[in-house]
Write a structure and sequence with these properties.
Blueprint lengths: L10 H5 L3 H24 L6 H8 L3 H8 L2 H12 L1 H12 L5 H18 L1 H7 L2 H5 L2 H22 L9 H21 L6 H16 L3
């Protein structure tokens, strides 16, 4: 099943809509769920819009009414799928953990647990076709911007040493995290989640807080 974050309208609100609007919302949800399943299993490039429509029980023209084209569906899956992750990271930013080691561990755990719970979404995020069309790049850039802001705040407090450039460090940290999560999502069960969290946390701490 697709993540709860896709279902942005509460069930009681849906029930208050007329039959036509309820059908439209249900069709959109089904297309998102089916698209997630097929893109993650078959790859984005080899999955056609008609494949998603057929597996969803609708005509391909219905898919185009909701998402314009396959890229629109892909963008919606990624954007709505990572809302849960972005929300968790934003909450952490609003309630920062004062001790650097605890903050780094908490940030790392959010990312790893999300990848653990959403392996299919991660496979789509790192799919070559997603990267080629810059859809996953937009998400990556947002993660970099959030990380850079936290690093600049740390530098202002004297937690991050002056030898560490926040912009370069943010790209380096996010690049390392995403590379590991990409590998881990494609090789489930290879390493326990706790081991991934511990290793990445130690790497981040040893690299960011020492000159």
């Amino acid at each position: 099943m697709y993540t709860d974050s896709v279902n942005t309208i509460q069930s009681n609100s849906v029930q208050n809509l007329n039959a036509r609007d309820r059908s439209r919302i249900e069709t959109r949800r089904r297309l998102l769920e089916t698209g997630l399943e097929l893109f993650s299993r078959q790859g984005v490039a080899t999955t056609r819009a008609s494949d998603v429509a057929s597996a969803s029980g609708v005509a391909v023209g219905t898919l185009y009414l909701h998402f314009k084209d396959k890229q629109g569906l892909l963008r919606a899956i990624l954007r709505e799928g990572v809302e849960e992750l972005m929300s968790a990271l934003q909450q952490m930013a609003l309630s920062p953990v004062p001790e650097p080691a605890a903050a780094v561990r908490a940030h790392t755990e959010i990312l790893v647990r999300f990848a653990e719970s959403h392996p299919g979404l991660c496979r789509i995020l790192f799919d070559p076709e997603s990267v080629r069309t810059n859809i996953s790049t937009e998400i990556t850039e947002h993660l970099v911007a959030m990380q850079e802001q936290r690093l600049r705040e740390g530098a202002a407090k004297g937690v991050i040493p002056p030898c560490m450039d926040p912009t370069v460090a943010a790209h380096g940290v996010v690049g390392m995290l995403l590379q590991v999560l990409n590998w881990w999502a494609r090789n489930p069960g290879t390493v326990p989640a706790d081991t991934v969290i511990e290793t990445l946390t130690r790497l981040r701490l040893s690299g960011l807080y020492q000159c």
